[in-house]
């Protein structure tokens, strides 16, 4: 089967996708139209008009930050946040995703509190299960640059909504070069880490950070670069999009890029997806999703 079609059809598991970074151009235009129809103030025009978001676009980091700020301003009411969540989930499903852990940091805006922000996403995810076959879950994120009382407030909300102390934790670890912090994080033993780029000595890590990761085998979820060292060291790896809107990508495109860049066979790709099932946080869905990927493997004799 043609690789592009194959990557689209392969049932995939998304474990690292930030809601606001995942808004596609179509979703953003939809939200902008909603704002315009209701006469809401929209400050994003000047930048948005000159901004052509297309697949394969290369952007500098300033452009990327501007996309985040547009996304934030377009999701600042409960209505638009709900729409953004629903449209984004639909896009992941259309791309062949069968399970997603969407993540977002509760944000206070003029029209909602952090609590309302969280309630809105949770209710939208619950409603989405009526129309979508994809299983959707939410990871409540805390931005480490925020003040400690904000972090505590979000942690308390997460505990309240999940009705239990969070027994699973994932950390952005080694996204930038900071070996000291990477060591501290690995020693904390999170259930998964995101990115894990600057851990290998060749990419800004040290021998110590790398050997600790190899020893602990903490699963790493990330987009497809710096794949080889982690794959060869048999560290559990999950291919994810992170911010598919900002980087104009999709989960199937990340799988395809990974296959093309690192010469993986279709069978190896399918096994990456199968493996990802082991590291999803929703224990009660594991068998269902595992069977879905296995069926695909058997049907296509991979
Ligand atoms: Zn991330």
Automatic annotation (TrEMBL):
Signal peptide: none annotated. Keywords: Hydrolase, Metal-binding, Nucleotide metabolism, Zinc. Coiled coil: none annotated. The keyword Metal-binding applies. Residues 11-161, 222-288 form the Adenosine deaminase domain. It holds the Pfam family A_deaminase. InterPro entries: A_deaminase_dom, Ado/ade_deaminase, Metal_Hydrolase. This is Adenosine deaminase-like protein. It comes from Operophtera brumata (Winter moth).
